[in-house]
Every structure is written in C-alpha cells, then in structure tokens.
Specification:
2 helices; 26% helix; two-stranded parallel sheet; elongated; single chain; alpha+beta
C-alpha cells in the first residue's frame, strides 16, 4: 500500500490532525476487528468515507497472493 499512512491504534486519537479528511480512508489490521473499532472512532470524530477492510489483511491476502499470510 504505497500511499498508506501507518498510525498505530493507540496513537489515533492524538494524530487525528495528520489523517486526511479529503479522501476515502480504509482502516486495516490483521483480522479486521481492531480496524473496525478505529473506523468507528474516526466516524465519531467526523471523518467521512471511512471503511474497514472486512477480514483484515489476512482476508485480503487470499485475493492478492503477493501479500504474505502470517
């Protein structure tokens, strides 16, 4: 994900100003549970076009074999 902004979950509340509001946001974690929480948090802070990658990067790896599964 070349244009990805990596923000650890615990840092999201303190880094809201660094998260762009002018484009869609896809939140990703390993299995999709923590990222769902973060996507909900961003929506509560007024971010629009926020999406959670259902199943996480683990599920995405089944679609894109170049992504290693762990």
């Amino acid at each position: 994900m070349p244009d990805a902004l990596h923000v650890p979950m615990r840092e999201v509340p303190g880094r809201l100003a660094s998260i762009p509001r002018d484009r869609p946001i896809v939140v990703v974690c390993h299995h999709g549970e923590r990222s769902a929480f973060v996507a909900e948090l961003l929506a509560r802070y007024g971010f629009e076009d926020v999406f959670n990658l259902a199943g996480g990067i683990d599920a995405y790896a089944s679609v894109d074999p170049s992504i290693p599964r762990y």
